[in-house]
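Lab channel / #folding
Pinned by the channel admin:
"Please post every new chain as: sequence first, then the structure tokens as a reply. Keep commentary short and put observations after the output so the thread stays searchable."

First post following the new format, from NK:
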Amino acid sequence: MLDLLTSILTGGATGLLGTALSFATSYFQARQRHAQELELRRLDMELAEIESAGAERVAALELEGEKAQAELSAFRESYREAARRWSRPGDGWLMQFVDFVRGMTRPALTWGFVALTSAIYFSMGDADAVVDGTAVKARIVDTVLYLTTTCVLWWFGARQIAKGARPAGTG
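Reply from TO:
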């Protein structure tokens, strides 16, 4: 009978030990799963932040591209408007004169400043007037060179842009 009692007690103790071992294993597995889930969520949040920053950058670039496209369209339209004649055949001489003046303004300014720059360059002597500590001729030359460069580059640059803005095969 002692054998029976010993078998029952040792079997019960082994069962309890097995249950405790199963519980401990389950506990540590659950803890590991929980830590793994937390790490996965943290990585998901990092990925979402990176994707959000990327999407934000893409949206900013798309907006910048749309803005540049709109500016180019407005620029092209301004050239079309500038090239358009205001007068029609049969209009009075005054409207035709207005068209002529409007069309000749930039070329006249450009060539006028080129001529002025040349005239000042070739007529300058060694004498240099000084007013309030400033060399007048040097200041005039600087200003005229600035204006001439602006006119020439703007005129020829605008012509190149206008040529580049034409549809293919038109010119």
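NK: The radius of gyration is 43 Å.
TO: also worth noting, Residues 8 and 154 are 106 Å apart (CA to CA).
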